Amino acid sequence: MKIEFCDLRRQYLYLKNKIDSNIRVVLSHGKFINGPEIRELERNCSDFLKINHSVAVSSGTDALLASLISYNLEKGDQIITSAFSFASAAETISLLGLTPLFVDIDAKTYNLDAEKLKTILESEDKIKGIIPIDLFGQPADYDEINKIALQNGLFVIEDAAQSFGAEYKGRKAGSLADLAITSFFPSKPLGCYGDGGMVFTNNDEVAEKIRQIRNHGQTSKYEHKTLGLNLRFDTLQAAILLAKLERFEKEIKKRQEIAQKYSDNLKGLSETRRLVLPHVKEDNTSVFAQFSILLENRGTRDTLKEYLEKKDIPTAIHYPKPLHLQPSFSYLNYKEGDFPISEEISRRILSLPMDAYKNEDEINYICRIMNEFFNN
Ligand SMILES: *Cc1c(COP(=O)(O)O)cnc(C)c1O
Prior knowledge:
The chain is α/β, with parallel strands linked by helices. It has helices at about 10-30, 35-50, 60-70, 90-95, 115-125, 140-150, 205-215, 235-245, 250-265, 265-270, 300-310, 340-350, 360-375, and strands spanning about 55, 80, 100-105, 125-130, 155-160, 165-170, 170, 180-185, 195-200, 220, 225, 275, 290-295, 350. The protein is globular and about 70 Å long.
């Protein structure tokens, strides 16, 4: 059996009529930039999250960039983020002349450890904000993080690139901080057919500012109020997302059922401590952007990965190297041992195939091969 890691074709075949007809509408009205589909998608996303403003932009990374620009920070200001994540938050912080301050993660959720926030706040004095990441599909602990931020006068930007659709204490990811961003990269839980992203906020002024920043800082044509960029989202991509958003809640349910099926089938291996299954906290639901397990050590992880590949089961490592050890951040002078949990998880983590259209036979096959690996 040949398995896809994330099968976007099956989803397309399922939604083909709606997606194709939405695309044809855009081709015929011709408003490829700032077309009416952008506004409609923004409204639908605001309704979905129960938030006042959604601003569509060109990618998740650009959503972080626009968010950070909107805070008028000064060179050398420090922003806290997780050492174990994709690079976007840390690199946009750095590119704006700000300094990323990494914090280690919680060993079970892989999200920023709120306890460790307190320690870093005692030792540094130019901290202005926090960017927690909702890794693999479940939100970080926002009540705790927002409380600490409020006590210290810091802003919080939620990176919900992987958690769009998930919930924290009944509230939706993307609505849990002052500002939030998501990504519509094709393989994210809600993805378009190219690059895209969105900024979410309840603050009218901030939303207006982000709208200006995404369009060269313009308040009207050729009236540039602030410095901005071209961070606009494509109308065609918005049209595609409008079709996908209609089925999104069903797809989330499917992803959660598939995750449960994996957990049931791998329960034996988990009980004998051959692997650790994803842990979703009681406060949370997860959209399982990734279904990531932990193996005993790097050797077992890499051997299992190879074994699965030979059986046409692709896997991925999110992420093989924590950010503080990446060459691009070497100028920050972190060293091996600074964030032991991030370092350990990067050696042991492995993501299994996941999308809303996997069938039971496929999950059974993957789990059977995994059991076979451990029983040999
Ligand atoms: C994917 C991702 C991003 C960046 O999104 P792009 O749309 O690819 O720019 C940012 N943060 C996290 C946690 C992500 O997973």
